[in-house]
Amino acid sequence: MKTYLVTGGAGFIGSNYIHYMFRKYNNSIRILNVDALTYAGNPENLKDVENRENYSFIHADIRDKDAISKIFRENEIDRVVHFAAESHVDRSIKNPEIFVETNVLGTLVMLNCAKDAWELPDGSFKEGKKFLHVSTDEVYGSLDNLTDYFYETTPYDPHSPYSASKASSDFLVKAYIDTYHFPANITNCSNNYGPYQFPEKLIPLIINNALQGKELPVYGDGKNVRDWLYVEDHAKGIDMVQELGRPGETYNIGGHNEKQNIEIIHIILDTLREMLSDDDPRKALVSDDLIRFVTDRKGHDRRYAIAPDKIKAEIGWEPETMFAEGIKKTIQWYFEHEDWMRNVTSGDYQKYYEEMYK
Ligand code: NAD
Ligand code: DAU
Prior knowledge:
alpha/beta; Rossmann fold; 7-stranded parallel beta sheet; binds nicotinamide-adenine-dinucleotide; binds 2'deoxy-thymidine-5'-diphospho-alpha-D-glucose
């Protein structure tokens, strides 16, 4: 039975990944989820797996060397899947320090602890151990030309403190691969959407605001392009790269689904109108008139677009969920989890929202 150490499993993608892995492998794997439970980490995301015998939650910070090395000492870890990070670009613009501390120094702690646990006296590594670093397409910068795509060979050109911190962490992983032949892979993925996404990010924020008849903030001219991938497809890609990827390689993961932000907002509004019944009072609140063009994000990258050719050719992964289907599943999930949304938007979120959008 393989033991997985997942970091940041109480966040959006991490919790979807853990659900995916238990659906796929059921009792044939064990998962240890280490998470510091920042504002973005939510134990509610894992309620339906928390009583499994093959799942444990460890409340710890990846920057805490002692806590992380203790986990490696006490468990024979076979796989590390490293999600834990500060992940929101707007927060990184206001407060870059924590992004460097968590994303760069925290990754260094993970690498060192895994290396200490897995390295043999001759400098080689124990058979079968694998570390997967979950990264982002934002490290490649911004594309101006509509026919350009991000490939694994595209030079890094990060612009925000968030993407600079993720790029730095990627370079550390690459350095461990090159210097020590450390058994790692990197995945650089495009924008995810789906269940359990915190409503600071565009899609859940728009769904939540529209259902309450609140303004829908669109940065700049709304024509920035993102490449949206349903989160379960990302989870599947991560597992496939970890099992089938060539040692030391980087794989881009993307949805082949580029859309302008304003298009995304119109799709959400149309889908909400289609899915809400006529007698639901929220239907009357959902309106295009809620759209507000607001001051642009500082240093706002214009376009991201992933070419997932390598992962398709070498591993056979491709996106499976069309956006029209994925957005319906996502909206349905938010309809069925109103309490979840109420809980995460009470307290600190209100303060964040007021400061961000005042
Ligand atoms: P998230 O913000 O929803 O979750 C991050 C999780 O990490 C939370 O559970 C949080 O509590 C935990 N965490 C933060 N600091 C920690 C620390 N010091 N120690 C331990 N745990 C800590 O993020 P997400 O959107 O799920 O993203 C997960 C990963 O995927 C990140 O590395 C992000 O860069 C990457 N990524 C995200 C996207 C996306 O669209 N969301 C796309 C590509 C890559
Ligand atoms: O590309 C992958 C990245 O996608 C991940 O690495 C990040 O962790 C993740 O947060 C996401 O970054 P973005 O900045 O692209 O996502 P966000 O949802 O914050 O914004 C998507 C687009 O929508 C972006 O162009 C900014 C715009 N936007 C966002 C918000 C929150 C708005 O116009 N209004 C908003 O209120």
